């Protein structure tokens, strides 16, 4: 007997995780691997946060469910942070805590879009956007972006589409490029979407990790936009699996009902830690200064060895580099780079299913020593690379 299997799970793999697995296998064999494939901080939460969590655990108090929306204390802290950072007043009722940003995207897509709807997103862009959209029956419409638009979508791109869009996902800073929308450009996109009945989903999970350019929030420019953020990146809480949304009025109850049934509530211990992490932003800003140093070393080092066509790394902790002049597809180049140099990077196919063979993504979220050593290894290896 052959049993039916739903096609919803037939989505492409997240290739960077395949690279991580291959890199881990090499480490098990005793090789020294430089991890530049994964986008996560190499440091943990500030010491004061860890101590507060330890005290909470030692108290013996029950660690039960929270509200589906999350701890009221955390929702208040997020609302206060939004007010202080962006000058935008957000009622705490519009803040919704989630099990990482991944569950936030799932619930936002399920709430905002119906099967068959069309949602635009930049290519290159984060692969899980289009994979989650496919799993819920929504069409992902790729918007090819490049240096002419600073790797970000524009109202003109959307206006030219026939048929039009039901939604648009923007990320500023972006993964994989690190490019950002200046505040006025985000305002223009947000107002265009609102005026044309397009639901804007603004991925702001790399806010806090920027280099000279101001990050703006879509909440400041649109009452219909959905903002998604995370404690994984700037806050160094990747494994704690906690994110949040700022929701428009018309989506609050629907998201709450989905969360109650799909997830019940976010992890309580993670929420307790997140309340405390807002007391340690100075320490987190110091971590960002380390990323800035790594970025400069990597960009200048790559240019010095002939990899000088990169997306503008305005924020996040990635360099998305054009490697087409090396004569190898990005997947093959990444495979050989790992096997021959011990450097793990992500192939562009993860982020651009049409033109991803031309680029790779370097993450510089690790130590400065990792970045320096990687450049040294590449400097030695590239002249010996045979196509």
Summarize the structure.
The chain has 387 residues and is α/β, with parallel strands linked by helices. Helix content is 39%, strand content 13%. It has two domains: 7-45 and 282-384, Aspartate Aminotransferase, domain 1 (Alpha-Beta Complex); 62-279, Aspartate Aminotransferase, domain 2 (3-Layer(aba) Sandwich).
Written overview of the protein:
The protein has twelve helices and twelve strands. With 387 residues, it is of the alpha/beta class. The chain has two domains: 7-45 and 282-384, Alpha-Beta Complex (Aspartate Aminotransferase, domain 1); 62-279, Type I PLP-dependent aspartate aminotransferase-like (Major domain) (Aspartate Aminotransferase, domain 2), CATH 3.40.640. Strands 2-8-7-6-5-3-4 form a seven-stranded mixed sheet, sandwiched between helices. α5 links the parallel β3 and β4 (139-144). α10 runs parallel beside α12. The longest helix has 24 residues, at 281-304. The protein is globular and about 60 Å long. The mean pLDDT is 96.
**What is the string of SSEs from the N terminus onward?**
HEHHEHEHEHEHEEEHHHEHEEEH
CATH topology of the largest domain: Aspartate Aminotransferase, domain 2
* Helix content bin: 25-40%
Major sheet description:
7 strands, mixed
Strand order of the largest sheet: 2-8-7-6-5-3-4
SS element count, helices:
12
End-to-end Cα distance, whole Å, is 48 Å
Radius of gyration, whole Å = 21 Å
What is the arithmetic mean of pLDDT?
Answer: 96
* Whole-number tally of structural domains: 2
């Amino acid at each position: 007997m052959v049993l039916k299997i739903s096609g919803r799970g037939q989505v492409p793999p997240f290739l960077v995780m395949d690279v991580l697995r291959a890199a881990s296998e090499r480490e098990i064999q005793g090789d020294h691997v430089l991890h530049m494939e994964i986008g996560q901080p190499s440091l943990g939460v500030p010491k004061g946060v860890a101590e507060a969590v330890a005290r909470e655990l030692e108290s013996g108090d029950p660690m039960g469910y929270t509200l589906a929306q999350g701890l009221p204390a955390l929702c208040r802290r997020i609302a206060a942070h939004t007010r202080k950072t962006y000058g935008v007043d957000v009622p705490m009722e519009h803040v919704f805590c989630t099990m990482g940003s991944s569950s936030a995207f799932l619930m936002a897509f399920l709430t905002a879009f119906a099967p068959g709807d069309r949602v635009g997103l930049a290519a290159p862009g984060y692969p899980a956007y289009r994979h989650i959209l496919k799993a819920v029956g929504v069409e992902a419409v790729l918007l090819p972006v490049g240096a002419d638009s600073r790797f970000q979508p524009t109202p003109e791109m959307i206006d030219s589409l026939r048929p039009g869009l039901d939604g648009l996902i923007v990320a500023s800073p972006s993964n994989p490029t690190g490019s950002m929308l200046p505040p006025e450009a985000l305002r223009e996109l947000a107002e265009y979407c609102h005026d044309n009945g397009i639901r804007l989903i603004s991925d702001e999970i790399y806010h806090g990790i920027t280099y000279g350019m101001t990050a703006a929030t879509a909440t400041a420019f649109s009452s219909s936009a959905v903002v998604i953020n995370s404690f994984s990146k700037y806050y160094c809480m990747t494994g704690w699996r906690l994110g949040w949304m700022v929701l428009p009025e018309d989506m609050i109850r629907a998201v709450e009902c989905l969360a109650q049934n799909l997830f019940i509530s976010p992890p309580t211990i993670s929420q307790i830690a997140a309340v405390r992490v807002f007391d340690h932003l100075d320490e987190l800003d110091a971590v960002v200064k380390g990323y800035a140093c790594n970025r400069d070393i990597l960009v200048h080092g790559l240019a010095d060895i002939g990899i000088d066509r990169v997306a503008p790394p305005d924020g996040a902790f990635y360099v998305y580099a054009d490697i087409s002049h090396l004569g190898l597809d990005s997947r093959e180049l990444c495979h050989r780079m790992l096997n021959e140099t011990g450097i793990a990077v992500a192939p562009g196919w993860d982020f651009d299913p049409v033109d991803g063979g031309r680029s790779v993504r370097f993450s510089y979220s690790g130590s400065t020593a990792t970045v320096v050593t990687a450049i040294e290894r590449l400097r030695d290896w590239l002249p010996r690379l045979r196509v």
